[in-house]
Amino acid sequence: MAIDIPPRTEPGMTQLVAGVLDDLQELVKQQLALFKHEIKQEVRDDVEKSKEAAVSLGAGLGMVLIGGILLAAMCVYLLQAGIPTLPLWACFAIVGCCVAAIGGILLYVGKTRLDSIRLVPEQSVKSLKENVRWMQNPQ
Predict the structure, then answer these.
(1) Threshold 0.85, pTM exceeds
(2) Tens of pLDDT along 23-33?
(3) How far apart are CA 110 and CA 112, in angstroms?
């Protein structure tokens, strides 16, 4: 009794290419899903950092305003009492410049904190760009 063994058929080139393209599509879908998830996570983290930076900026601005008003009044008259030949307007100018410099420093610190926040996950963007490059030139 002879057993018929069907001839072994190997997938054709079209099937192989279709399989590779299907796998590539699935990979891109998965990476886009990962990218979306990472962006959501980064946004959550960055919202917290943004709140902290905004509080710092707000506190800095408030302190500059209040401190500027109170110290300006006190320092102007103290400066004129210490140097009686100095006109009152010059005392106001000197004190105003000092208060403005302190405010500028506080604003710079808050801006630096805001600049350190990254909204886009760099690793996912790099990986996605690499896949797009590979899809355009699959050699």
Answers:
(1) no
(2) 888 888 888 88
(3) 5
